[in-house]
Amino acid sequence: MGVEDLTAHMAALWRARGVGLVLGHGDRVVRCNDEFGVQCGRTAQEAARLTWQELTPPDRHDRDVVMFQQFLTVDSATMLTELALPDGGRRPVLVAAAQVDPGGPRWIAVVLDLSKDEQLRRMAEADAAILSTLLEDAPFGFALLSNDLRFLRINRELAAMNGHTVAEHEGRYVFDVLPQLREGAEPILRHVLETGEPLREVEIVGETDADPGVEHIWLESFFPVRAPGRPAVGIAALARDETELRRLQREIEALSDQRRQALEELQRGLLPTAIPQVEGFDVAARYMSASEEVRLGGDWFDVVRMRDGRLALSIGDAVGHGIAAIGLMSRASGAMRAYVSQQLDPDAMLRNLDVLMGEGESEAVASAMVGRLSPDGLLEYSTAGHPYALLRAADGHVGRLTAAQGPLLGARRHPRYRSRTAVLEPGGALVLYTDGLIERRDESLADGMARLADVVAAQPPGAGADALLQAVLEACLDGREREDDVCVIVVVRPPAPDDVERTDAAPDGGAHTDAAPEGVARTDVAADGLVQAEDVVQGEAVVPTDGAADDDGGGAPTT
Question: Number of C-alpha atoms within 13 angstroms, CB side, residue 284?
Fold first, then answer.
């Protein structure tokens, strides 16, 4: 090769990427190509002014000086070292150097960047560390299986689950070690191999030599093991023994069922076991618990026949769920029955009950409605933040009893409650309920109230209380899971026979009704909100809100 050819080859090498070329004199760089500048984190001009010591980290100076001195005494040398970068980093390099003049100070060196190789080495070390952790310390079972379903590697956790040592697994066919699991597990493993798709959280049931005769449940995941662009070379398996967890879950579910049953029995034990019937009225009531234990609330109702022949009605909803709400419901319903026996007026009952709410150590809030129904149909009532009762007239008009709304029990200091009157006409109906009847997650309370009003309006005057109650429950609950407790009281005043005859014979086609009891004007009933059922459907406010009814306001509790 001629001098010109050699010069051309050197020029090409000087321009090459990935190879640093350095010309030196003594311990100083005289000239270098651009690639060496990149390796140093500098320009070629900056690197050419530096000594070898300035290009290497301080902690390597002693070793590199010795190696450099040895190099100057021989024709050539190769060494591993590091270049110090301006940002404080270090780059591993391989340096192959040779003297230009034997025994002289001039030299030439080829420098190769080993940082990518170092990254690969570190990645390999990290992979090895991960695998070591999986095999030695992981709290779950792990195994690598070959394509012919032999154990390549297995950790101690999975080996213990299988009842054999690690050494007893390696190289053996999976179902020679675990013949009991072949029926359930082999199709899964074959599926992963054939499709190349992972399967996660697969439940496998069976027994192993670790616990003979005892059925265990494992949740296992299987992943194909492959290199990029290559078919699967095996399967990675992860396993977790769920047996004890499932047993605990069953125990918790059983305890939860027992707890729910106890709560329901406690709640039902505080409710009336029989509904008293009073001449001239047909009464029906129903309590339905929430579908989930966590939603069991403090709804209550009571129907009491008073000594003077009147019918006392009360219904309420303690805010909250669970034991606390049921305890509050117990206090409230028991106190209400005592107030009824004392023949207190409805507003006085609520005032006393509000005081009772404030006597506990924790805050207690509830809604309630109290009413006293006389044989002649006169209803005295008072309400504390409770959904408005519905009153249906004999002609089918449905209205809301809004005139006596006060604040929630326990929600304010020194609240005011008042009693108002309405008339339950012959052929009419009264419906008291808790908010669980009209609440649905996917609609407004106005929609729920309109549905209830439509059902009440649609029942003929001759329909009994049980029929109306059943129609209300079917329309409003519609077989759904109940998110809250539901209480409903229905009182129907059957039409008098002569009323039916006069209704049929009315020349103007209208329905005749009895006059209001003496001293109660029809305008009182209208003031209580008698409206057409379709007016309710059109979006009238249907549930009491704070301040909506009087100066004291009111509000339906959220339970």
Answer: 15
Q: Using an 8 Å Cβ cutoff, are 379 and 423 in contact?
A: yes
Which of 124, 96, 100 shows the shortest CA–CA distance to 110? 96
Measured distance CA(146)–CA(157) in Å, rounded? 19
Q: CB neighbours (10 Å) of residue 500?
A: 17
The Cα–Cα gap between 57 and 65 comes to 12
For residue range 240-272, what is the model confidence (pLDDT) as tens digits?
A: 999 888 888 888 888 877 776 766 666 666 677
pTM of the model: 0.52
Closest CA to 365 of 356, 373, 374: 356
| Residue 217 and residue 243 in contact, taking contact as beta carbons nearer than 8 Å | yes
Paired residues of 23 in beta bridges: 31, 108
Pairing, β 378-384 against β 405-406 = parallel
Buried b (16+ CB within 10 A) or exposed e, 304-326: bebeeebbbbbbbbbbbbeeebb
Distance CA 367, CA 365 (A): 7
Helix, strand, coil percentages (3-state) for the chain, rounded to 5, are 35, 25, 35
Task: Tally Cβ neighbours within 10 Å of residue 516.
Answer: 19
CA distance 508 to 221: 80
Residues contacting residue 93 through CB under 8 Å, at least 6 positions apart:
20, 39, 80, 81, 82, 83, 111, 112, 113, 114
Q: What structural domains and CATH numbers belong to the chain? A: 18-113 (3.30.450.20), 134-241 (3.30.450.20), 264-537 (3.60.40.10)
Which residues, 6+ apart, have CB-to-CB distance to 477 below 8 Å?
288, 437, 486
Q: Which amino acid is at 20?
A: G
Torsion of CA 190, 192, 194, 197, to 10 degrees: 160
**What is the per-residue pLDDT across 157-190, written as a single tens digit (0 to 9) for each?**
999 999 999 999 989 999 999 999 998 899 999 9
